[in-house]
Amino acid sequence: MKRWSLHLRLFAAGAVAVVAALALAAGGLSQLFNAHVERRAVAELSVELDQVVAGLDRGPSTAPGTPDITLAQPPADPRFSRPLSGLYWQIDLPGRTLRSRSLWDSALTLPTPPEDGSAHTHVIAGPGDQKLLVLERQVTLPARLGGIAARVAVAMDEAELKAADRAFVADMAPYLALLGGVLIVAGWAQVAVGLRPLQTVGARVAAVRAGRSARLGAEFPTEVRPLAAEVDALIEAREEDIRRARARAADLAHGLKTPLQALYGEAGRLREAGQEEEAQAVEGIADAMHRHVDRELARARIAARGFAASCAVGPVIERVVSVIRRTPEGARLDWSTDAPESCAVRLDPDDLTEALGALIENAARHAEGTVRISARAAADETVTLAIRDDGPGIPPERIEGLMARGARLDTSAPGSGLGLSIASEIAEAAGGRLVLAPLARGLEARLVLPQAPGAESV
């Protein structure tokens, strides 16, 4: 359940609630219908009982002074004459019992008669394992019938009532199923509409991450607005932390300048004193410290700029190539650049210059005659900057090791070994990557960077 989406959880809870509510409604309606049918059945039995009482009359006397009571006019319902039909009447008189033909050779076993003489209903066992609803009343016959007390009962098989209830439920079920489907679909729509602001929050966060927006904003419903405000506050706090980190890094660099200059001065004095080996050792330490300070400053600058910057690729490539062409390594090479004007990346121009500078400088150092630089925007909103040289290349098994901090292919050549690492970190900080691909002759360094918002793919 923890891995279910919020949309699915709410929909499942709503669907279960709808099904439970309709089940309860079906049970309640069935009970109400059953009670209504029973009241109607009692009303019908009351009419039949009145007909039975009204049909009593004198018959031929079987004993001196005692009238013979008979049902001269039985009820008109033919079921009273059909054996075990489910509709019965019975009259208990002193010393004898009159019964409908439908009872056949059975008799109604009535409970103890009430004292008030009003009509009462009972549920008793009947013939043929039937369960009967009985309406019975104590009556006093008129003087012409001897003025005796008689207990008159009319009964109906409850199976008819149960059948009517089952038929009602069967007729009601399709409508309840249709209502349930409509309510579940309505619940799905309600959940979708209710959770739409959360989808908007996700889209706004993605826009902030992609550099298309700086904040989520406050255009949300009242319930979501506090969340958006907290996220905006978190973004602002992160930006403030980055600004402070940059300031601390700048202070650190400024504070190290004097000690580094002192080390270089000490190295110069050692060299003047003829201690060349000691001077080189001191300068090596100072150079290492200087490189790492520059590297940490670059990282702080990249983190501070985040995803909001953008720049055109073509001018940066031309600027870097024009500088390297004036170096001894670049002057001997044939250069080719191909970068459309519409090609732009989501990166600060200085950071792109630093990354391209490291890669192009490496290509110029190892190329034998040509360096080719191209830029292409893809449909997946990325831009690939490819730098190809025709140098000796790199064995495939050594590519992963070269991406490590300070790794160098040729340790005899000048350089710090941080160029590829810094270029890779700049690309990753912007949401991209650096890929080194050996060629049949030479090496291709691909810098894959996110496309700037609004730039066109080619």
UniProtKB/TrEMBL annotation:
Its main location: membrane. Residues 1-25 form the signal peptide. Its EC number is 2.7.13.3. Residues 192-243 form the HAMP domain. SMART domains: HATPase_c. SUPFAM superfamilies: ATPase domain of HSP90 chaperone/DNA topoisomerase II/histidine kinase, Homodimeric domain of signal transducing histidine kinase. Pfam families: HATPase_c. It is found in: Membrane. GO terms for molecular function: kinase activity. It comes from the Bacteria. It is an enzyme of class 2 (transferase). PROSITE patterns: HAMP, HIS_KIN. Residues 251-453 form the Histidine kinase domain. Coiled coil: none annotated. It catalyses: ATP + protein L-histidine = ADP + protein N-phospho-L-histidine. The keyword Kinase applies. InterPro entries: HAMP_dom, HATPase_C_sf, HATPase_dom, His_kinase_dom, HisK_dim/P_sf, Sig_transdc_His_kin-like_C, TCS_sensor_his_kinase. Keywords: Kinase, Membrane, Phosphoprotein, Signal, Transferase, Transmembrane, Transmembrane helix, Two-component regulatory system. This is histidine kinase.
